[in-house]
Batch of 2 targets.
Target 1
Amino acid sequence: MTQPLTSERILAAAEDVLRRHGPQKANVVDVARALGVSHGAVYRHFASKQALREAVTRRWLHEFHTILEPIDEPRAWIRALSAAKRGTARVDPELFATYSALCDEQSAVVDEHVAWMVGQLEAMVGDKGRPLLQATTRFHHPAHVHEWSDPEIEHDLERVLDLVLPPAQ
Amino acid sequence: MTQPLTSERILAAAEDVLRRHGPQKANVVDVARALGVSHGAVYRHFASKQALREAVTRRWLHEFHTILEPIDEPRAWIRALSAAKRGTARVDPELFATYSALCDEQSAVVDEHVAWMVGQLEAMVGDKGRPLLQATTRFHHPAHVHEWSDPEIEHDLERVLDLVLPPAQ
């Protein structure tokens, strides 16, 4: 019995290909091979290599949205964002580096992700949402992954939160 | 008439070598060749390739210190830091990328640079100095160079400064 070929199955296979072969290999031919299907079958779901790479990047970023969506207090939200990024990088540093490289190339997908995060924060703190996200860049932007193993990182985040979201507010 | 071989002449030559050949070439043999001297003559000033690479990185970062040192108001200081980094990246993007790569490998030199910046800010705002520098990371850390061509970058910095250094303070 063969499972139906869904977009979700293709994206899960694409993540496996990324994990094993790095960011260059997230293309239709390699993913079709991993699934044992024709590349035509994959093209029916993703019209191009670019569409597949966008979708796999969006799926990764969406996992963070799922964690953040229920949180409605800005300090807790920023702490959760930082902890989720750091945790993901710690558990599988190579896959994190692979997705970071994909994000560097998929700027439209990253713009959507940033706009989503700004929207969440704006619902909590109004027009301070965007500067609040930017002021905590060091604690969630993948470019700073090498600073996240610093034992002071959580303490540093608390100090920045005290500055940008003073408890008296 | 030959000029005396000073450390400063060696470091200026090392920057020329970096500009022409990228970060891998900042070594004693290439710099000695560029100066037309023996590598023994360079070793009398810098005992190893590592010492030379540290010194050339430190010299580059020191140029920012020279700009910042006279400024004693925290908003003006952060604006000057951000403008100096952005300006340097805009004038010679390749040399900026080369020095960024050197900084990535010379973490002790970068730690000194960060400690110097924190010290400057602490003299102005006390123990808010360190979180203030971290909250403005996006606007001066070389990892964000690709965001600096955004036409909103200066506006974004002002919004973050309003958050971290409210005018009423």
Target 2
Amino acid sequence: MQRILSTALPAHIGETVRLAGWVHRRRSLKSVAFLILRDAAGLAQVVVSEQAARARLEELPEETTVRVVGTVTANPSAPGGVEVTSPVIEALGDPAEPPPFDLYRPDLNVSLPVLLDHAPVALRHPKLAAVHRVGAAAVAGFRTALEEMSFVEIHTPKIVGTATESGANVFELDYFGRPAYLAQSPQLYKQIMVGVFERVYEVGPVFRAEPSDTARHLASYTSLDAEMGFVDDHRDVVAACHATVGGMLAAIRDLAGPSLDLLGVTMPALPREPLVVHFSDVLEMIGTATGQDVSAEPDLAPAHERWLGEWALREHGSDFVFVEGYPTAHRAFYTHPDPARPGYSRAIDLIFRGLELVSGGQRLHRYGDYVRALTARGESDLSAYAGYLDAMRHGMPPHGGFAFGLERFLARLLDVPNIRQVTLFPRDLHRLSP
Amino acid sequence: MQRILSTALPAHIGETVRLAGWVHRRRSLKSVAFLILRDAAGLAQVVVSEQAARARLEELPEETTVRVVGTVTANPSAPGGVEVTSPVIEALGDPAEPPPFDLYRPDLNVSLPVLLDHAPVALRHPKLAAVHRVGAAAVAGFRTALEEMSFVEIHTPKIVGTATESGANVFELDYFGRPAYLAQSPQLYKQIMVGVFERVYEVGPVFRAEPSDTARHLASYTSLDAEMGFVDDHRDVVAACHATVGGMLAAIRDLAGPSLDLLGVTMPALPREPLVVHFSDVLEMIGTATGQDVSAEPDLAPAHERWLGEWALREHGSDFVFVEGYPTAHRAFYTHPDPARPGYSRAIDLIFRGLELVSGGQRLHRYGDYVRALTARGESDLSAYAGYLDAMRHGMPPHGGFAFGLERFLARLLDVPNIRQVTLFPRDLHRLSP
């Protein structure tokens, strides 16, 4: 007999079926006992009335894996309107040791350290599993949206010979007796690959030796990266990013509906056309609204991003707002300046519900500009950038791209305060296991 | 005017269009010059007859990025039956420095070290780019096949606290002042995640400090991993792996047809039902065929795998053959023994054209079995496996899975002798850049 999933039960009323899963919960009443079985699809109620079967159920603690063969019976008062009766229950392994918390309660009310220490079992809680189903749907949507725009998937090195993007916050490793580093981002490689495919994307781990212990930072996270050639300016990047975020939200709705319901998620509002404001206009609006003089600020402080998020929702009904034109001096060396406004750049950020989610923009593409930009930032030895500069020297189109962390997106979408709550097995200053 | 790609030209005969791309090649004849433009889709022939335009083209070396506005004109003798006439050509950057090899020749006849040293530019050669388009299609097919079977995508840690899978060949890094290691595979984590989603998959980098300098080994490669719960035995894993490989081949045909044509690839034959032979039967067949006594061999030597590959093609018309039942002692500690045949296991390999591609099988799932297996292999401190053993202790179903390297699959598919030829930016004993 082929196994069916719990959600398929209503289609089999009156039939004998085979289920398999975990003992989610047992409830023993006077005349009957209930086994709530959990499988990948959901929960099934199994009614155990025969004495010998009740005795056997006593010996199968929560989380034991079992196979159940029984009759599907309609019962309007059962969850989902069906239950399994006259079951034969067979353990698929040894009786499980019960977890240190009750996975069957609606919420896993344990502290974050306890949750993370016991992640291999805690993640089985339906609400925690739902978080990662939403994550998987988000990544699927990221890929689909970019594939539809002819982006090609790439896999770039995670071990690099030089710590190019920033000297600090980089993990060093012993590479066959010489030093090497974990890549902080695929930035330089994805730009190189624009020379090959014009449009590329990558989903992969990035590594930051973050010495700060905050709710927003991890030592490793899943970076969603895209880069595209032959752009007119950063507005082409804004359009691609906007379409990508739209595709992610659509995929989450399509693929993770039950998880959204379980988590009670309010899906964010994304307008049809991207909402874009210039950095200097943001500062002016904030100055006018708050009476503070912020006109000399080189970047948006978290409070400014929050203000802007509220403004975007209030004035434009949008949970997303792009900021363009950040001052060049405060962005990475490869940032393309705005030729029309000295000091300002073609860098963009996407603010999602008042928090910076995406960073990107148009990049420099002329070899000479790179040499000047790197030299101006005090890089004396350009050989560290050899392969990257080769790509520029041998002809690169105007290009740009964007990147963001999957976990940060999930935390904001699900309104979770600590990024560790939406990361499978987080790595930080203190945590290296499980 | 919206840019169009070179492959769209035949649909625009008589119209003025805008193209953009790289100067792939210039050919100057007496009365006319040709610019072959390369973009993401292919090549376009641009006819330059006006004197001033010819002079300007002289100043745009190969690989310079340009924009071309001109008229699409039918010409049966032009490649694709169309060319662009009366062009206005505008450089999008500075004149490129010509690469150290001719990207416009049908094949890039350079040594492997030269190719790898200059990968940022060499990868632009249409045949090298085609390799990685096939790779992207293969990965897309891997995901689609598994999603259709309800596998959920996961992202597991690449930095781990203990070198559990094998003490040797592991990269050590400085993790905030204490030692940590790069994950050699997502094996333990994907098994843990079977407890959450039943079926999971991951596409991501794995790291092996391979001290050997061979054509088959890399220090890092892209691992395609899947793991599934509630299996009856390893044959369920064989079926899922077979379906996945079938999905990959279909996706390659569907998504990378032009690249296959360019590379002249003979697509492999995959039978409808998986071809499976037992390890002991393989040895017996080889003994009979060769007259050698191989009955005591603990594993298949490369020569045996080649023999088996030829046998599968000759006798069954298949480029793929699964081997089941490898001796338990020579497989990883988590390997499930075959209860019916002491000494043999439920481990599988998939041999693709005479080379081991996939490893997998059914795993142990009882906590007690893990403690015994690890202890028997001399592991004195099981705390290194704490999270993994927690998952087993708290109830795991019978499960199994498989894994293989994207690059090894590509090398075999494309009949390329060295795996570095199908890796974007390979990492090995000697190479850490570009």
